[in-house]
Every structure is written in structure tokens, then in C-alpha cells.
Amino acid sequence: MKLLIIYVRRGASGFTLIEVICSLAIILLLFGGIYGIANASLLLCRASSDIRMSELRFNNLDAMLRSSLASVPLDSAVELAPGTGGESSQLSFNGGPGVLSWNNTQLPSVKVALRTQEDRRHPGSVEFVVEHWRAMPIGGQRSSGALRLLDHLRFARWRLLDPQTNRWESVWSPDQGRPVMAEFSFQLQNASPTYRMVFWIPPYPATQPSGDGNDAPPQA
Predict the structure, then answer these.
(1) Which distant-in-sequence residues (6+ apart) come within 8 Å of 154 by Cβ?
(2) pLDDT at position 218, please?
(3) Strands of the chain, DSSP E
(4) Residue pLDDT, tens place only, 116-154
(5) What would the DSSP string read from start to end of 147-188?
(6) In 3D, which of 140, 110, 146 has the Cα closest to residue 128?
(7) pLDDT band at residue 100, thresholds of 50, 70 and 90?
(8) DSSP state, 218?
(9) Cα-Cα end-to-end distance for the chain
């Protein structure tokens, strides 16, 4: 009697299709989670960087305006005109050469204006600029150019404090004299809070201390 011997050849071990699909799904989930965490971290870093840059810009603007308004010449006439709908205004200094000049140059300006205008780069927004005007030989005034200080704004407006009534005024004429304080408020288009800056306009010329103790300002 012959025995029938059957040899079973075992093939190489491997993964089934279901195991491969499950492995791929797990790998995709892991990569998706890692990508989500990395992307969220990048967005957070970018937002933090934008906030720091905005704070730096606002601090520099505050320092520049504070220094400039504190050194406005006594013979400079101050004028404040409202804009359309009260959402903007123009603060002007007539006869104040050197006020708010940039690059440390004394521009031969007969008028300096802090105003808003349409922001062409961001439709529906306004930008805050400083503009210098000079006298023309044939009469009249001509703009020497405007320097953008802030952009992408919802509004920007000025108010002046009347020393007689101790009230903030949105309109100011040169015959009212010299205000003691100026308030600048603005809001960005990204629904940010309203920023408010208050500056002192001294009623006497600013002087540099000489160290001899005789630099006290005169009484107003």
C-alpha cells in the first residue's frame, strides 16, 4: 500500500488588504494631526507677530506726535475741520515751519495738516497722513507731499480741548487761540478696539534743559 504524501509549500508571510488599508488610514490620521498642529502654531506665531508690529507702529506714532505737538511754535495757528459724517477730521498748523517734518529736515512749510484720505490699496478704508504745504511765488499754496502714517483704517479723527470751557471740541478756528490738549482716536478695519491718544500742546516754547536750574517754563 502506497502512501500519498502531499507537500504543502508555505509562501512568504505578508499583510492582508484590510491590514494595509487600516495602516494607511492610521498613518494619514497621524500626518493630518501633525499638520494641523504645525499649521495652528504658524498661524499663532503670525498673529502674534502682527500684534507686535501693530503695537510697535502705534508706539512710534504716539512718540512722534507727542514730540511734534509739544514743540509747535507759539505763532502757529491751530485749525480743526471735521470730515464727512464725523468719521474723519483735519488738524492743521498754519505758519509753523518744521512741524512734523521727516528726515530731520526743516521744510519751508506754511501749513502742515494731519488728515485722512481714501486708502486706494484697501477699498472702503481710509489712511492717516501728514501733508506739508508751501507758499507759491505767484500766491496761494501747493502741497509738498504727504507721508502715510497709518493705513487700513475705519476712521481717524481729532478733538481739541478748550482751556476756557474745559470741553473737547470737534471744530476749532484759529481765532479761538491755542488748545491745551489734542486727542487722536482711530480704529482699524479688522474690528479692533478704538485706540485713543492724548497729547499736550504747551502754551510756551519747548526748551532743552541746560542744567543751571533756570529752565522752568514761564507761567501761562
Answers:
(1) 87, 125, 126, 186, 187, 188, 189
(2) 43
(3) 77-82, 89-94, 111-118, 126-135, 141-162, 167-169, 181-188, 195-200
(4) 888 888 888 888 988 888 777 777 778 778 888 888 888
(5) EEEEEEEEEEEEEEEETTTTEEES-B-GGG---SEEEEEEEE
(6) 146
(7) low
(8) P
(9) 135
Name residues whose C-beta falls within 8 Å of residue 183's C-beta, 6 or more positions apart in sequence. 158, 159, 160, 161, 168, 196, 197, 198, 199
Residues forming beta bridges with residue 198, ordered by sequence position? 183
For residues 109 and 136, is the Cβ–Cβ distance under 8 A?
Answer: no
Using DSSP's 3-state secondary structure scheme, residue 88 falls into strand
Measure the CA dihedral 45/46/51/54, to 10°. 140
Beta-carbon-side half-sphere exposure of residue 87 (alpha carbons within 13 Å): 13
More confident call, 78 vs 71: 78
Determine the length of the chain: 220
Domain segments of the chain as ranges: 63-200
Question: Global pTM?
Answer: 0.67
Residue 95 confidence (pLDDT) above 60: yes
Mean residue pLDDT of the chain comes to 78
d(CA 41, CA 38): 5
CA distances for 184 relative to 24, 65, 83, 128, 143, angstroms:
59, 10, 14, 11, 23
What's the alpha-carbon Rg for the chain, to the nearest Å?
33
